[in-house]
Amino acid sequence: MNEAVAGIDIxxxxxxxxxxxxxxxxxxxxxxxxxxxxxxxxxxxxxxADLKQQLQSLQKQYPGIRLLGAGIxxxxxxxxxxxxxxxxxxxxxxxxxxxKMFSDALGTHAKIxxxxxxxxxxxxxxxxxxxxxxxxxxxxxxxxxxxIVANGEMIYGHDGFAGELGHxxxxxxxxxxxxxxxxxxxxxxxxxGIVRTYHELKPDAAETxxxxxxxxxxxxxxPEAQEAYRxxxxxxxxxxxxxxxxxxxxxxxxxxxxxxxxxxxxxxxREAFEANLLNIYRGKIKIKISELHESDAAxxxxxxxxxxxxxxx
Length: 313
What we know:
The chain is built from eight helices and 13 strands. It has 313 residues and is α/β, with parallel strands linked by helices.
């Protein structure tokens, strides 16, 4: 082994980072709390210092191993400008040149993209979409993220922000979304969305009930929790049937905590999806679960930004 890529995933709560081999093996990793750093350059310095130590440790096992580059996944990241732009869940304000900051700190080539798009590229290189040139990845976390790959290329649009499927409107005058609009898909199909649904079905439930608890209750057979999953799956399947008409994907890959409910989510998703598909697409599009291990997926996705360039060259 003579090279590794730094994968960096910046979230609103935690930042994970590590070194990844060309074969998709996470060689080392670490985590820091994002909110403990008031300024972006403080986080960049801390992460870069840790990554350099990780590389030094690896060099004892693999003499001569070098850092090929650094891939970064972050909310509101623009791959065209290298900036994180007005990220609502980060304390840093305005435009933050995170790509250049990591490149300078690590002394290597860096690439940045939206975290959900990084996940999609990771699936293409290391996961369920290996060999596919046309697919969607839907991340079901606090919100609903997405990455659209068509004809082998990630769709970024003219400004770098294409593919915000979580903010497609699915309900006229529906639930208020964090973006300020009403009826966005992620207000129904996300960890936050299913909690809202559950509390509508069971108003006397404790406010502390979260999506993990709803999943546990659903798997144990509680009717309200199971109905919350049925409703969520039906809404998601309906929306996916519309998304299929845009790029005609070979597959749609679901990732995130909600998929741990298994068939409680997947069955209504698949049923609503097939029932609402245009005839020419029926029976052609697979709905699959991510093959990436949840704890490593973000690192693999970020690292794939660099490996993808290397493979092209």
